[in-house]
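Please predict the structure of the following assembly.
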Amino acid sequence: MKKITVALAGNPNSGKTSIFNMLTGARQHVGNYPGVTVEKKEGLCKYGEYEINFVDLPGTYSLSAYSVEELVARNFIIDEHPNVVVDIIDASNIERNLYLATQLIEMNVPLVLAFNMSDIAEQRGLRFDIEQLSKLLEAPIVSTIGNKGKGKSQLLEAILATAEKDKSRRTHKVSYGDEIEEELAQIEKIVAQKEEQLTQKYGPRWLAVKLLEQDSNIAARIHSREVLDVVTDSIRHLRAIFGEEPEIIIADRRYGFISGACQETIETTVESRHSASDMIDAVVTNRILGLPIFLLLMYIVFFLTFRLGEYPMGWLELFFDWAGKIITGCWPPESQSWLKSLLVDGVIGGVGGVIVFLPNILLLFLAIAVLEDTGYMARAAFIMDRIMHKIGLHGKSFIPMLIGFGCSVPAIMATRIIENRRNRFTTIMIMPLMSCGARLTIYALLIPAFFSKQWRGPVLWLIYFIGIVLAVICIKVLRLTFFRGETIPFVMELPPYRMPTVKSVCIHMWQRGWMYLRKAGTIILAISILLWAAMSYPKPPEQSLAGLSSEDAQQKRLAHSVVGRIGRAIEPAIKPLGFDWKIGTALIGATAAKEVFVSQLSIVYEVGSSDEQTKTLRQRLRADYSPLRGFCIMLFCLISTPCVVTVVMTKQETKSWGWALLQFFGLTLLAYVITLIVFQLGSLIGG
Amino acid sequence: MWKEQMEQKKVRPLSMVKAGETVKLAGIEAGRSLNSRLASMGLVANVEIKVVKSGHPGPFVIIVKDSKMMLGRGMAQKIMVV
């Protein structure tokens, strides 16, 4: 079994992902490039006597040093020496796509070109003289239709043939014109002399071109003063001749080379690549219709994710109940065995708590995959951008934030559709302020307890409104402090509309779900078990519980446990907010999951949790607290600590516990301060 | 180069072009990073730009080398065309 590594490069929207899926099927693995938040996708393919490890590089338009994705792609090619690099080209949009190819040619890598979407190219009337073009570019060219699985074996054959070939010198190089070539020759000479190691690694010509382009990443690696001087002189000289930066001229000449090659080998008709899309866009991005259409689609996505998700969630809950009963059945009925409790409450409870999010995540990413693959997502960003921009976010931030009103966990995962790191992190940090569905259970308990019928609607609305306002303020603050800086200037490609394939959508959906289970699942399970232990231990001695009703016994156990003790201990700290130890205990329990707040409160008040008893709970609460306090409790719950699953999710998406903890403590602090102000002011005014 | 053309008053920013017009790129008034990025997406000297939507309100939509792109207003003001 011969093993080789093949890198897949290409523009965004070139269909690279569908080629990757075509070649590797479901045997894919998503990881990270070390030190950056760029995803690394790898997959295996067995063909003949070969085992091929395909690495799907980030989609890029170029290989400059200006963005993390480009550097990651470039460094992978240079440092890891894949046996072959396949450049996936949208055949219906050749000239722009070949820009990347010219840079790969310059890197002198073993290259194969895949002319993808060849069906669309044909529809447009494009005809290629593949042989000629292949000679000019000195690389085999294979026609493919990635999303239909066409061209797979031809592509694999070409890859293997290229891998087996000896590395040969190219005869046709991309020429930049006499003036630039002269300077390049000079730089090449001195670089070969003074920087042997670098020359060995990168090749003299590529180095020279990069230096002339003032590539910051390469320039930083040059030690020799002489080399830098020669480069500076060359740049000055060329600037004087052309009146432009050499970088610009070089880009220009690349397109010139491409143009020349294409003119000889490609026939086109006048048919525009975008005529069908233009018609759809006329409606979808229409000034009047655009927004309503978008909102309708968003409603469908929300509905799909949460309503439809209720069914599988219900089934999962039944399953876990059943599993719990089976395990409980292994012990005699009144047993207080710690192992039983660990398994049933700790492990099953914990695992259940993790898996319960899976249906939502799968459905959400199904919807996102469809939106992205059809090309609509780009238009959605366009429509929302004006509004989002005023707040300081990108148009694409709208979708995750909307999902956040259902549940923060899939919402934070969904932020990966935002390419810009600063925007993405900002959106993640404020996500808990989009009051989620679990918090609704808290409001549903407290609002009827403290407010008369005509006030209930407005109070609920007020809570959500405060959440949104705070989110906007926090975004502004975050963008001025931690995530300061210009967002990448707004330019985005609008690909033609396409029909997504079931296969690609399902692969996308499955990948996200699996990543969630693998990465977040384990941590959440561990923390859930810890919290269970904190809520159950230490146990009060058996005798002290003798003769108590079950609710009384429960309350005593809770008071005795770690959580209960902490609840009492923090009482002086939360008194200025109008809270007591009962609320404190419930709040601590709520870090496991917001719904736990309600059940904890029931225990503390020695009330069972059936509906009848909820009424009783409300009466008891009303007896103990004023409406002001009730409102403050809700306010605190709105702003403060998200549930542990959300925190873990934040850590996973930001790749650091630092941000997750900042979110946790930052929001708690914010909640404390605001609730303090509201309670104190409220008490002064009327109470 | 394009700065001289500007003096001859032939050149204007993309933001002033109406929908449906086709113009040619003269130059980009921006730093190297932005210039390079736009170049890699097809915006090099003399390339044909077809304006599909001209903002007012909202982003601009243009077609360059068979690619449809949208740009913010700030960006459109930096792209000089003729």
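Residues 290-328 of chain A form the longest helix (39 residues). The CA atoms of residues 42 and 55 of chain A lie 4 Å apart.
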